[in-house]
């Protein structure tokens, strides 16, 4: 593998870890737990792993000799910066317990377990990938582990390799699957522990015990650097409005964090749009008013941040998408026979009056995107909906109407961007490098403590790393029941932006000033070497949430 100078330098970086993980540890059990909602239903589904206590690791002066253990690891779902450091942490943790312990990686995600596709991860391999971005050490995949046949097929290879513990690194769906797998293996006495690790750049896998999901810090810093560059260009040319869509299907954490870092003129927060029951027209009017006010001051330029999942949070659009999805599910073959030029009118004729009118008002391209194939969960593929183009085009139309009426005197020219994949495989920031390594090392401690159905937890991460608190939280504690494919299923509850939380309230208090001024912040690239206040700072979101 050819390496850049930065990669060579980063390979030597030693991640900082909680003081408790430096040497022998003991597991201290705390209070017993219950699920975040639907306690009776969740308990019934997880009789063997429900209600377990939160665990914290503390130093001990009485280390226990541990037998060698074989463990497996899976990277599941979309990439997030720091995944390789989680694996390195697991490896180092297992080797510290017994040098003869072995770690196996399943190739291309959960499918590797089912298909018996694996490789042993040796020190030579691990050392090549320390502090690097991406998931290319073993690859990732989106196979859902939810059927008994899959569990049994996976157990065959686990037994063949004498693997006693499996670590699944993933988001809310992947960790839900980890919880189901842990319950099944415990119920049948398989002798395999299952541990989860919280990963997603979207930032929507968190709670009191899981402060943040790994990768969020790095991805937001990557996006904020580019937003800052665009804002500097914007302030230099002074002739474009930049509409920037950011990843985050189910929550606006990324958009909000990037707004706190760069101070754009507009940042839309999907959760607020839904709470205020705003229509698409309301959103367009809100943005157009900022454009008009800046134009009145002679500023015909600006930036607008847009969360990826916005259209699904606009109540009227949500109703349209629901009816559209239901209709296409039952008439897909008929729809595909319609000529493309006639598909729009066909859809308009089949929807209820309200939804038909909304659909008819959409630009041609966006209307077509709403009819594209659904994802494996039956959802509209929102990343394919060019919301940034939709807003730019409709704001332009609104301003042209106002110009005719004499309400607007400026010039409007738009540029559109979507930042998504650019942030998923970046070299992890020092924060993510440290946090991920600690999560992996903590997972090895959970394995050594005989735990199953737990998620690795590292808290107090706005403090210096030696003050971080390592432990584990039962995955059932995060569960609630939600309707999926027409039936109620246990899933980890997604964490949306809290409108009464400190990050949003801080943004809301400042956005009117940011709208009319050009008070942009240019964060620049991630810094890996230098003063700790430059290199190790966590996200604004985390600092505000923990008030430190």
TrEMBL record:
Write down the species: Macellibacteroides fermentans
Top-level enzyme category: transferase
Binding-site list for Mg(2+): 172
Q: Where in the cell is it found?
A: Cytoplasm
The GO terms this record gives for MF are: 6-phosphofructokinase activity; ATP binding; diphosphate-fructose-6-phosphate 1-phosphotransferase activity; metal ion binding
Instruction: Detail which positions bind diphosphate.
Output: 78
Q: Which InterPro entries match?
A: ATP_PFK, PfpB_PPi_PFK, Phosphofructokinase_dom, PKF_sf
Could you tell me which residue ranges the Phosphofructokinase domain spans?
71-315
Catalytic activity as recorded in UniProt: beta-D-fructose 6-phosphate + diphosphate = beta-D-fructose 1,6-bisphosphate + phosphate + H(+)
Domain of life (superkingdom): Bacteria
Output a single Gene Ontology CC term carried by this record.
cytosol
Quaternary structure, per UniProt, is: Homodimer.
Show the active-site residues. Answer: 202
Protein name, please? Pyrophosphate--fructose 6-phosphate 1-phosphotransferase
Q: Which family does it belong to?
A: Belongs to the phosphofructokinase type A (PFKA) family. PPi-dependent PFK group II subfamily. Clade 'Long' sub-subfamily.
Pathway field: Carbohydrate degradation; glycolysis; D-glyceraldehyde 3-phosphate and glycerone phosphate from D-glucose: step 3/4
User: Site Important for catalytic activity: which residues?
Assistant: 199
Checking PANTHER family in the record gives:
PYROPHOSPHATE--FRUCTOSE 6-PHOSPHATE 1-PHOSPHOTRANSFERASE, PYROPHOSPHATE--FRUCTOSE 6-PHOSPHATE 1-PHOSPHOTRANSFERASE SUBUNIT BETA 2
Q: What role is this protein assigned?
A: Catalyzes the phosphorylation of D-fructose 6-phosphate, the first committing step of glycolysis. Uses inorganic phosphate (PPi) as phosphoryl donor instead of ATP like common ATP-dependent phosphofructokinases (ATP-PFKs), which renders the reaction reversible, and can thus function both in glycolysis and gluconeogenesis. Consistently, PPi-PFK can replace the enzymes of both the forward (ATP-PFK) and reverse (fructose-bisphosphatase (FBPase)) reactions.
